Amino acid sequence: MKTVNTVPEILSTFPDSHFDKQRWRDYAGAIHPELPKLCEEDTAKYEFEKDVLPVIETVLGEPERIRHLGSRFERVVAELQERLPVLFDKECEVTVVLYLGLCNAAGWVTFLGGKKVVLLGVEKVLELNWDSEEKLKALLYHEIGHIWHEIYGNLEFPAHTQSRQSMLQLWQEGIAMVCEQILSKDERYYYQDENGWLAWCQEQEPMIKEEYGRRLEQEESTQDFFGDWCDFCGYSDVGYYLGCRFVRWMMKENDLREIAAMGAAELLEKYTRFAGKELPA
Fold first, then answer.
1. Which end of the chain is more exposed for a tag (fewer CB within 10 A), N or C?
2. What is the DSSP secondary-structure string of 212-239?
3. How far apart are the C-alpha atoms of 141 and 38, rounded to whole Å?
4. What are phi and psi of 239, to 5 degrees?
């Protein structure tokens, strides 16, 4: 795993809070020639002056936070380098880049020049207040979990129906959460655990399982289970808990690599058992 920390370049390119897109293109192009176009195409659906620029300029007005984030990034990636062999039995060929994006994502697994990269967007990390060492570690470990899934299994399967799409997301995020726990050396670790989140999920697990299963059967959306901008019964990211519990349950019978290579039909059948709805013999 290689790492690139561009905090010094961010601070020298934008010495005040004023953002200039051409200067940003020069800065991003120095990281990789394909990066400016990649970021601009990704955010083309947003109104730049209204949705993107205010976030970037707010962050650029906090140079000390940016500087501290760079220092924490160095500590987090150094620790991750030591822990990678727990998950990977070969070199993890990925480059992790801490950079100033255009509000693309806090964490983004993509390709530059045909090589896999994890892009950590300074502006989104700071906007979301994910700049503590613990939050930054969780973000990076989770993205590394998706990379592990792609290397050792099949990250995608055809999802032409709502139920298959819901299962795909539950499975992907569940595996990434388990990888995150393995890297953290703590099977009870959930970065979302604030304000009683984990206790509520544990207490309501039967209801959560049942409701997700009902939506799978009825081909209903499960978007409210995922993403910090959504909530299920007043709690966000409940799908990450459920996915992790589902994968841990499957690990009683299957190796994690076997689970990472499963298809939709097998996963849907296993979820029926997991949710307590055993099919009659």
1. C
2. HHHHHHHT---GGGSSTT--BTTBS-HH
3. 23
4. -65, -25
**Residue type present at position 256:** L
HSE toward the beta carbon, residue 228, CA cutoff 13 A? 11
CA nearest 154: which of 146, 144, 162, 142?
A: 146
Query: Helix (H, G, I), strand (E, B), or coil: what is residue 99?
Result: strand
| Sheet hosting strand 2-5, strand order edge to edge | 2-5, 95-99, 115-121, 107-112
Q: Angle at CA 27, nearest 5°, toward 21 and 16?
A: 65
Instruction: Quick: pLDDT tens for 211-244.
Output: 999 999 999 999 999 977 778 998 989 999 999 9
Amino acid at the residue 110:
T
Task: Name the pLDDT band for 90 (thresholds 50, 70, 90).
Answer: confident
- List the end-to-end C-alpha distance of the chain, in Å, as a whole number: 48
- Which amino acid is residue 255, in one-letter code? D
Phi-psi domain of 185 (left: phi exceeds 0; alpha: psi -120 through 50; beta: other): left
Residue found under tokens 């300029």: 57
pLDDT of residue 16: 87
Q: How far is CA 103 from the centre of its chain?
A: 15
Strand partners, 254: none
3-state secondary structure of 112: strand
- In the chain, what are the domain boundaries? 2-152, 162-274
d(C-alpha 77, C-alpha 96), whole Å: 9
C-beta atoms surrounding 185 within 10 Å: 9
Q: What is the identity of the amino acid at 96?
A: V
Which pLDDT score is estimated for 92?
Answer: 87
Its sign, for the CA torsion 12, 13, 18, 19, is: negative
